[in-house]
Design a protein that fits this description.
alpha/beta; about 160 residues; Rossmann fold; single chain; globular
C-alpha cells in the first residue's frame, strides 16, 4: 500500500459539493482519498480500472475526476483521452507514483488541471480539489455572464 501523510490534515467545508469520480486501482488508496473528500462534504464515486471509469463518465455527470496514471487495464492517459472526447470540460487531477516528465507533459497537453506525485499530502490534495472546483465554477460564471451580456446587447438593439 502506498502511504499518504495525514499529519496536519484540517477539514474545511464548501457550500455546494461537486460529485467527484476517484479512479484508483489501489483500494486502500481509493478509500483514503474518498474518505477525506467525503469528510470535506464532497460526493464521491469510485472506479478501480480504466474501463469502469470510462463507463461511469459516459453514464453520469461528474464535476471533477481524480485519475491515477497506472491502472490495471488502460493507463490514465488513455482514459483521459476518452474523457476529453466525451466530457471535454471535466476538470481532471492526475495522480501517480510514476510521473515522468513525458507523462506529465502529455497529461498537461490533454488539459489535466494538476498532476500530483505520490505520495502526496492530503491537505494539498484537498486544496487542489477545492481550487479545481472553484476554477470550474468561475469559468461557468464567466461564460454565463458573457452570454447574458451578448443577450442584453441584442435585446437592446431590437
Amino acid at each position: 500500500m502506498r502511504r499518504v501523510s495525514t499529519r496536519g490534515y484540517k477539514r474545511g467545508i464548501i457550500r455546494y459539493m461537486p460529485k467527484i469520480l476517484v479512479v484508483e486501482d489501489d483500494k486502500d488508496m481509493s478509500r483514503i482519498i474518498s474518505s477525506i473528500l467525503k469528510e470535506e462534504g464532497y460526493k464521491i464515486d469510485r472506479a478501480y480500472d480504466g474501463e469502469q471509469a470510462i463507463k461511469k463518465i459516459k453514464a453520469k455527470d461528474y464535476n471533477l475526476m481524480i485519475l491515477d496514471y497506472k491502472l490495471p487495464d488502460i493507463n490514465g492517459i488513455n482514459v483521459l483521452k476518452e474523457v476529453r472526447r466525451t466530457k471535454p470540460s471535466l476538470k481532471v487531477i492526475m495522480i501517480s507514483a510514476y510521473g515522468s516528465p513525458s507523462i506529465k507533459s502529455t497529461a498537461k497537453k490533454l488539459g489535466v488541471y494538476r498532476f500530483l506525485d505520490k505520495p502526496f499530502d492530503l491537505n494539498r490534495l484537498v486544496k487542489v480539489v477545492k481550487d479545481a472546483w472553484l476554477k470550474s465554477q468561475g469559468e461557468v460564471d464567466r461564460s454565463s455572464q458573457g452570454l447574458s451580456q451578448i443577450y442584453g446587447r441584442s435585446v437592446a438593439k431590437s
